[in-house]
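Appendix B. Raw example, untouched.
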Amino acid sequence: MPKRVLFAGATGLVGSRLLLRLKCDDRIERVTLAVRRETGLQGGKVQSVVVDFRLLASLDAVFPTCDAAVCCLGTTLKAAGSRDAFLAVDRDAVVSFAKQAKAAGARTFVVVSALGADAGSSLFYSRVKGETEDALRTIGFSSLHLVRPSLLVGHRQEFRLAERLGIAVAPLLKILLAGPLAKWAPVDAEDVAVQLQSALFDERPGVHIHFNAPKFSS
């Protein structure tokens, strides 16, 4: 049955690749983008709804009916400018979007989290990702997919030193970090997009955690 998908974060490194895949997927009937401003990505099966993510939690239902939702929202502490600004995107906006998706009928929710996500972590980034995952678990989706990639590699508009270094050493790390350690190797954004696309059609009940390689999913 063709799916109606609600999608936040379609302009980022992973999200832009996922959108291209969904456009070509005959199983997808409609993709509704939640965007901060018009992006020019609309057309065909793709439509958009302009929203202020800071206000989503206080709004009534703003999105059309959907079957599944995917969230690729995320930033960096440097880009956000402060911890509070980072929290507003990577935790608050993600959770508010998820609640709106549930109100719109989404039974399956797929989100890009991060390797090491843990609400009890002493690392700020990992702690925020863990808090976000914990909040998503309480919303009540029939099927929740937490995708935890390691260092993402791929072309971005902005310069990120860690990712450039990751690209440089990725071939070596993929050899060294084999077998059970594969989830720690740098991962191409396209591979993560493939995981997300697959998860949108995975309606198994419960919470499912996905690392770099499918064999490490649980």
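End of appendix B.
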